[in-house]
Specification:
The protein is built from eleven helices and twelve strands. By secondary structure, it is of the alpha/beta class. The longest helix has about 35 residues.
Length: about 280
């Protein structure tokens, strides 16, 4: 993850500051120093603090960065989560990139924490997991943010385990044939999961020996019927349109996993700001 994070930081800084910062450079001397504080603008679950430190250090290795919290912490509005001391120009150059990483990742962690709390309240032992619906290039960081919020990760790439969907079934000719071909090809340690949309498909997936059966966009009553059909022969995953308001009706006994794409594709940005303390420019 570190290599990809470094690459993202390089891209972000090149995008924002490749030509310098003409506003700051026009009014701040090169030898001017300040202390910058990053403050939470709301109660939130924190993520991205280590990335923020890397951004400051990439901009100027002479900056002294102190983390006041840790990724995964619950912090309250007004809390100082990071302080950095050194060149004012360097601090200002890094500001937007630092805040962009923090607001995106903490937003995901905060939403994930709400889903984790909903799962705990359901009391059925269900796990909430993310999906591959992530920002291109950001997947490792966004899935880390999900875990900081108390949820879990589904597969991170196409090569991690088998997930047979409707297009695979269409290409193979049938659900049973798709399972058979996947079993003959995949490594022995790879899970074999099948996405189903009807109870007939659930029955076929059980008969074919699927290890995980995904119930896609089914109603609560269909899910109950599917759980009875599966009868603990496979892990039961529910997906499709689950939000915080509807979560309880899907977190039924017998459902092991609920996958929520919104954790990464629809999390609102968390609120952060940076404030400088310094002597006025003479």
């Amino acid at each position: 993850m570190r290599l990809r994070t470094d690459t993202l930081i390089e891209l972000a800084l090149a995008e924002d500051a490749a030509n310098g910062d003409i506003t700051s450079e026009s009014m701040v001397p090169a030898d001017h120093v300040s202390t910058a504080s990053i403050l939470a603008g709301e109660d939130l679950r924190l993520c991205g603090l280590e990335v923020a430190r890397l951004v400051f250090e990439r901009v100027d290795s002479a900056l002294v960065v102190e983390l006041k919290s840790a990724d995964g912490d619950l912090v309250h509005k007004g809390a100082v989560v990071l302080q950095a001391e050194g060149s004012t120009l360097s601090l200002l150059l890094a500001e937007r990139t630092v805040l962009n990483f923090l607001q995106r990742l903490s937003g995901i962690a905060t939403l994930s924490n709400s889903f984790a709390n909903a799962a705990a309240l359901a009391g059925t032992g269900v796990r909430v997991v993310d999906t591959r619906k992530t920002t291109p290039g950001w997947r490792a960081l966004e899935k880390f943010a999900v875990r900081c919020g108390g949820c879990f990760s589904h597969r991170a790439s196409l090569g991690e385990h088998v997930l047979i969907k409707e297009n695979h079934i269409a290409a193979a000719g049938s659900l049973t044939m798709a399972v058979e071909r996947a079993r003959n090809y995949a490594p022995h340690c790879a899970k074999l999961e099948v996405e189903t949309e009807t109870l007939a498909e659930v029955q076929e997936a059980v008969a074919a020996g699927a290890e995980v059966i995904l119930l896609d966009n089914m109603s609560a009553s269909q899910i109950s019927d599917a759980v009875a059909l599966i009868d603990k022969a496979a892990i039961v995953e529910v997906s499709g349109g689950v939000n915080l308001e509807s979560f309880a009706k899907y977190a039924l006994p017998g459902v092991d996993v609920i996958s929520v794409g919104a954790l990464t594709h629809s999390a609102p940005a968390a609120d952060f700001s940076m404030r400088l303390i310094s002597d006025p420019v003479e």
